[in-house]
Amino acid sequence: MKRDLLLMTAPVRDSFDIPCHEIGPKAAHPAAAFVAGLHGDELNGTFILSRLADFLNGVEAGKHPGLKLLKKVLIIPAVNVLGINLRSRTWPFDKSDMNRMFPGNVSGETTQRIALAVLEATKKAEYRVDLHTSGVDFEELPQVRLYSPSDAQRATARHFGLPAIMERSISPVFTTTLMHAWQVWPGQSFLLRVGQGGTVQLGHCQQVFRGLVAFLGQTGILAGVSLAEGDEEISHFRQGSSKRLYAGKAGTFVSDCQVGRWVRTGQELGYIYDSFSGNVIEKVEAPANGLLTGIRRHPLLFEGDLLLRINPKS
């Protein structure tokens, strides 16, 4: 069932709503809650969750014989609906970051009221998943991010079947994010990072979509899921394990390397060209053996910009 999570009026135009999907058996709280589109330029997550809602509604309608939804699922594909319409990462009216408004405030600014509505709808779910991408200049390998996790969270994170699990500490910088607001509630919370902002990357989206369906199957929320054996290797990286490489010179960065490749120390991964003469001014080499988990996609860069990230195998 599609319903309005929140309906709000606008100063001079029509009212707008933030829709959500409630799918499966009736229950006081969802077993799993999925959220995307807190940032209006993160289209991969919105596309994945809209496809997941269509798939689960199909399960409920009997379009997928053998599958049965056993518990209620809540899906919010696009929180920053106005930002998506205007291709804006931030909330268009005041340029605020929607993911810095949690836990929200019933008497606060528009974005704080939206944040409160999202938190209230999701906080009692047994499993909570927030989907993000990197910015428009950088591509991330589809991955699960855990913040100061328990052993149970580490085990559950493998149910997504994504190639990388990254651990991070809970930073004071992120105390106003949805992930941080979830941490005080019982249940398990996961952040998925998927590709690059500003576009839909079909390969990444298909991989994460399959991962979410597998997750629902592994957690007993969706019965009848056939789980493939021998899926791609899952690498678990503890906090502080990544090696970052920054540009030594400004110019035009070009690379045909794909995230998800294992590379070796000294391997050529791209070049920085002089933007006017076309001369190669810097050869970009892997700083370590490991998995290429992120790489810059916008070609123009300044000295000191992040070029790539590699996570050595532990």
Please characterize this protein's 3D structure.
With about 325 residues, the protein is of the alpha+beta class. It has helices spanning about 45-60, 80-85, 110-120, 150-155, 180-185, 200-220, and strands at about 1-10, 15-25, 30-35, 70, 75, 125-130, 140-145, 165-170, 190-195, 220-225, 235, 245, 250-255, 260-265, 270-275, 280-285, 290-295, 300, 305-310. Strands 1, 2, 3, 5, 6, 7, 8, 9, 11, 12, 14, 17 and 19 form a 13-stranded mixed beta sheet that branches. Strands 16-15-13-18 form a four-stranded antiparallel beta sheet, with no helix packed on it. A two-stranded antiparallel ribbon has the order 4-10. The termini are far apart. The model has no long low-confidence stretch (mean pLDDT about 95).
Distance between the termini: 44 Å
Number of helices: 6
Largest beta-sheet details: 13 strands, mixed
> What string gives the helices and strands in order?
EEEHEEHHEEHEHEHEEEEEEEEEE
> Quick one: overall form?
globular
Percent of residues in beta strands: 25-35%
Helix content range: 10-25%
Decide which structural class fits the backbone.
alpha+beta
| Uncertain regions spanning at least 5 consecutive residues | none
Rg calc: 20 Å
Describe the oligomeric state of these chains in a short phrase. Answer: single chain
Count of individual beta strands: 19
Average pLDDT, rounded to a whole number, is 93
